[in-house]
Amino acid sequence: MTDAVRTHGLFKRYGQQIAVAGVDLVVPAGSFAGLVGPNGAGKTTTLSMITGLLRPDGGTAEIDGFHVWRDPVEVKARIGVLPEGLRLFERLSGRELLTYSGRLRGLPKAEVERRAEELLTVMDLTGAADKLVVDYSTGMRKKIGLASALLHNPSVLFLDEPFEGVDPVSANTLTEVLRGFTASGSTVIFSSHVMDLVERLCDWVSVMNQGHIVAQGPLEQVRGGRRLNEAFLELVGGTGHARGGGLSWLGAGARQPAPAPAPVDEPRQDAQ
Ligand SMILES: Nc1ncnc2c1ncn2[C@@H]1O[C@H](COP(=O)(O)OP(=O)(O)OP(=O)(O)O)[C@@H](O)[C@H]1O
């Protein structure tokens, strides 16, 4: 099987902080892959470098065999990205945003319109298609962002926390769309903190901790007969701070006796 994504020694430092410490990420083509790791593990920085949004300090990244920084046009034609902190053109309507994305990708107008209508229907955004994006809710923004990332039918789709703020019905729809997408041989890579979701959707998992890949491979191999959450906690070493005596004051509030009520002055007879 060919690899949709392959990085070698990917490295990024912010001042003294090493965010990504030499990452060899591999994702086979056709995978539904999850990139997981605790807060600050380096997931977003890694995805930003692979998608050409952030220049690495060292290492290489390839998509479908094309070098991200040497062949940016080849790479950008093949990828769709739903980045963290999604910025959209707020003064366009949802439909205009899709039209703009499709035309920017060089698709013929009629084809863009056909795909945009289908995506709006699937994402349950038809009723909001002519509303300005600035007036969209968080979940609606995710959905129009995803529609825009899918419109040119990318070979590899990168999603940073795609289900955050999305209601369960819409999440189900997104899942079905993404499953169909990978079943046809395309690749999805998404970052998430929700282990149940990763376990349910993914057939490939990469676990990051402190800028390193600490486990990577088929889901069954990474979880090794345990629930993914257990494997994850073992791999990244759960801190156990909450059990270690910290926050002993938290939760005791309800058991504290209520302070005695302040004496209330008798209403004065002459007050009226
Ligand atoms: N622009 C920046 N300037 C300075 N430090 C940064 C910057 N972006 C990220 N970092 C640092 O790099 C490290 C990795 O951050 P990153 O956002 O990649 O982690 P993450 O795994 O995506 O975290 P989360 O799950 O919380 O989104 C963190 O220590 C973070 O503080």
From TrEMBL:
Domain ABC transporter, residue spans: 5-235
Entries under PROSITE patterns matching the protein: ABC_TRANSPORTER_2 (PS50893)
GO MF annotation list: ATP binding; ATP hydrolysis activity
ATP-binding is among the record's keywords: yes
Main subcellular location of this protein, as a coarse class: membrane
Keyword ATP-binding: yes
GO annotations of cellular component type: plasma membrane
Positions of region (Disordered): 250-272
Membrane topology category: Peripheral membrane protein
InterPro entries (UniProt xref): AAA+_ATPase, ABC_transporter-like_ATP-bd, ABC_transporter_ATP-binding, P-loop_NTPase
An annotated GO BP: response to antibiotic
Pfam families membership: ABC_tran
SUPFAM superfamilies reported in the protein's UniProt record: P-loop containing nucleoside triphosphate hydrolases
Cell compartment(s), UniProt: Cell membrane
Keywords: Antibiotic resistance, ATP-binding, Nucleotide-binding, Transport
Record-given protein name: ABC-2 type transport system ATP-binding protein
Native source species: Nonomuraea wenchangensis
Source lineage: Bacteria, Bacillati, Actinomycetota, Actinomycetes, Streptosporangiales
